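YM 10:42: CMP/dCMP-type deaminase domain-containing protein sequence, as discussed on the call
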Amino acid sequence: MSGPTENDLRHLHAAIELSRSCPPSATAFSVGALIVDARDKVIADGYSRRDDPHEHAEEAALRSLAARDPRLAGATLYSSLEPCSTRASRPVPCAQLILATPVTRIVFAWREPALFVDCEGAELLRAAGRTVVEAPDLAPLVREVNAHLLGP
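YM 10:58: structure's back
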């Protein structure tokens, strides 16, 4: 398993910046997501609670594209937080939403802590044959955005 590239880190920084746009919540993480096509062009973005109080960042980004949009083949989804494998607010978790598309690669900065649910998104995506890359060096930035949930 290889680590993130410089390009991955650049896109993750952009996703983390998007997460700063999230309306505050005491019951959900603030997350940003980008979808980048095979030619390194951002084709969608999203952040938690952008259009709905229960919306996740990956969900918002994916909703702006058709599930079979040809640009998704070979695309990478960047998320500041590991895509969820369980949701309290909706029936379909983000890992399953991603698996319903041809997105081949997922890059995230911070593994979701067991604050609200036990997350196994990275494992589910890998088990389905998707490439999953973690960039833990950027996790402190994501924790900073979510400091209100983590306590002192």
